UniProtKB/TrEMBL annotation:
<feature type="domain" description="Methyltransferase type 11">
    <location>
        <begin position="39"/>
        <end position="126"/>
    </location>
</feature>
<dbReference type="InterPro" id="IPR029063">
    <property type="entry name" value="SAM-dependent_MTases_sf"/>
</dbReference>
<keyword id="KW-0489">Methyltransferase</keyword>
<keyword id="KW-0808">Transferase</keyword>
<protein>
    <submittedName>
        <fullName>Class I SAM-dependent methyltransferase</fullName>
        <ecNumber>2.1.1.-</ecNumber>
    </submittedName>
</protein>
<dbReference type="GO" id="GO:0008168">
    <property type="term" value="F:methyltransferase activity"/>
</dbReference>
<dbReference type="Pfam" id="PF08241">
    <property type="entry name" value="Methyltransf_11"/>
</dbReference>
<dbReference type="GO" id="GO:0032259">
    <property type="term" value="P:methylation"/>
</dbReference>
<dbReference type="InterPro" id="IPR013216">
    <property type="entry name" value="Methyltransf_11"/>
</dbReference>
Length: 245
């Protein structure tokens, strides 16, 4: 698993969107019990924090100790530095396993073997992600040109799995039909700029070229944003759910 975000953990915690309640409303009725959940590659704990409201215990792991320093605290969340593919958890430990905007970085075979080992009978796995956001046609055109033409060559190959909506990631579970969900946020322009700065391709570009590529489009974004203080931002959710065993 790659670690592209340790150096910007504070920005990641501040500017990455959390996930809509509709995800949890779909998942929870599928479970026999809510004793223990594993939020794998938790980052700054956005999903773990929500799971902690309903589960007795949440194990939240990430390979980045720096990310975990910025994670949401809760008495029933146990944060630990562990790789997704190899954990110290006992067999048959979890009722629910979640991975949010991270599974595309994993070794799929090893991770799936680990899920089958630590998942309980009738447990559920949920792979969650989100596509490029939609705001207005003018803003979207600027962001998509930036995504493709400016930082396009700097995306890791694994990014293609997000573009494919995780359809080509091995998923050896009994897959369940999921609802279409859109994550809706009300953002100011600074939220959008902060979010763009958390892109892994932006980090790669800046490391190679010594300057921040987001500055190239900032003026165009301000003009397209206009005088409106907040705008509706739509993130189409990627959502794959299955029975582990």
């Amino acid at each position: 698993m790659k670690d592209n975000f340790s150096t910007i953990s504070d920005q990641y915690a501040k500017f990455r969107p959390d996930y809509p309640q509709a995800i949890y409303d779909f998942l929870y009725p599928l479970l026999k019990q809510k004793e223990c959940a594993w939020d794998c590659a938790t980052g700054t704990g956005q999903v773990a924090h929500e799971l902690a409201k309903d589960f007795n215990t949440v194990e939240a792991t990430d390979m980045s100790a720096e990310q975990l320093k910025h994670a949401y605290p809760a008495d029933n969340i146990k944060y630990s530095v562990q790789k997704a593919e190899h954990t110290t958890f006992a067999d048959d430990s979890f009722d629910l396993i979640t991975v949010a905007q991270a599974v595309h970085w994993f070794d799929f075979q090893q991770f799936n073997d680990e899920v089958k080992r630590v998942g309980r009978s009738n447990s559920v796995i949920a792979l969650i992600g989100y596509e490029l956001n939609n705001i207005t046609p003018e803003i979207d055109a600027i962001v998509r040109a930036f995504y493709t033409d400016v930082v396009g060559p700097y995306w890791d190959p694994e990014r293609r799995h997000v573009q494919d909506r995780y359809q080509n990631i091995p998923f050896p579970y009994r897959e369940l039909e999921t609802p279409e969900i859109t994550n809706i946020k009300l953002w100011q322009l600074e939220n959008l700029i902060g979010y763009l700065n958390t892109w892994s391709a932006v980090q790669h570009y800046e490391k190679k070229n010594g300057n921040n590529p987001v500055r190239q489009i900032e003026n165009d974004l301000r003009k397209a944003w206009g005088t409106v203080e907040t705008r509706r931002v739509n993130f189409p959710i990627i959502f794959k759910v299955g029975r582990v065993k």
